[in-house]
Amino acid sequence: MRVLKGIIGFMAVILIISCQEKETSITNPKDYAIYLKKQDNETVKEATKRLQFWNAKIKEDSLQITALAPVAAAYTELFQSTGDIKFLKLAEKVLVKSAEVAAIGKSGHLLALAHNYISQHRFIEAKEAAQGAYLLKTNIKASEMVLFDVSMELGEYENAHKYLERIANQNDFNFLIRLAKWNDYKGNLDATIRNMEKAKQIAENSKKEGLLLWSYTNLADYYGHAGRIKESYNHYLKALAIDPSNAYAKKGIAWIIYSYEKKPVEALAILDEITSNYQSPDYFLLKAEIAEFQKEDITKKVYLKMYEQAVKDERYGFMYNTHNALLLAEEYKKFDQALDIAEEEIRNRPAPQSYDLKAYILNLKGDHKKALDIAQKHLLNKTFEPEANYHIAEIYKANDMKDAIVPIKEELLESGYELGPVTFRKIQEL
Q1: Domain range for residue 389?
Q2: Total-model pTM
Q3: How far, in Å, CA of 231 to CA of 26, rounded?
Q4: How many domains does the chain have?
Q5: 212, 244, 276 — which closes off a domain?
Q6: In which band, very low, low, confident or very high, does the pLDDT at 14 lie, cut at 50, 70 and 90?
Q7: DSSP letter at 259?
Q8: CATH number reported for the structural domain that contains residue 383 in this entry
Q9: Which of 52-56, 252-256, 335-339, 355-359 has the lowest mean pLDDT?
Q10: How many Cα atoms occupy the beta-carbon half-sphere of 145 within 13 Å?
């Protein structure tokens, strides 16, 4: 009888493990393997063809202005498809020129320049360019959209809301994606997803690939935040069906495999494929995190060195300030250097995430009271990002505020997928 009970108990354990495996098996290599094979990047090929065509026009046309906009657009597309910073900087150079010489359509050139500056994390310059476009009064709605984008980046939320109200139109894709961003900032994820789903419907009706890619990848992100992992995965696949070389969608799938399914080897295989064709230093940081999860300390150090080598390129400017500061503070305990970068971030981007960076580094340094002061003034009820909440919880812990940690920890435990397994371990120790 005892033997029978033991067998039944053993079978029950096997059944539980089996069920757990089914619950956490979302991805299937058969779904995405085709996108990992070495193939020509059609987006890059088409953008390169357009670039060659319009560059030839520039040589022939003394005015040049008619060719400058499409050349800048081609460079921007090449940056988005390859991650190569040289294309973003070349786009900037062309856009600065076109904004200077344009007599007609100047606002459009300024707004494109503002977008370029946003990509480079040069938010104050982006704001100046967008305001310049707005003052021309020839493209007011588009100017207000970009001013909303810049205001959100700078933490100027009252201004952002003002611009959002001015462009309000429930049937407009560009309004809906910004309304989704606003609701995400406010911590209303249900409304965020609802508005992105409306935007997706408009994109699908339009059949415009650019809008579809934006909708699918952003909605995939939001579904992930909401714990709707299967839907997230499916939307990354939809993006890849349109653009098989889309690095962002592949990275999203790799994150699901790593953070949700806990399959680091498979996730790294996808990341290796991405980085063979796409240049972006932050992929090395993700690889380093996965190596830490695997307890592969030497491999982690190798990836960190690869990241450091990549960001030595001065053309990146401010783009990796936050990553650099965290690396200096967390890995090398160079707190003063990290704080210098955090201060620079606050000057360039006085938003909650910049103050979060400073507060977190101060807490790591041991200046717990200063960290708490910043958190209370600049973070509480001003950001709902899980990473910022985790940093606040660590600051509370350092200041022996045990009761204040409890509700934050409960929320953070629900954000384990978004934050990743390494941070989730730390959350459990709060």
Answers
A1: 317-430
A2: 0.90
A3: 10
A4: 2
A5: 244
A6: very low
A7: I
A8: 1.25.40.10
A9: 52-56
A10: 19
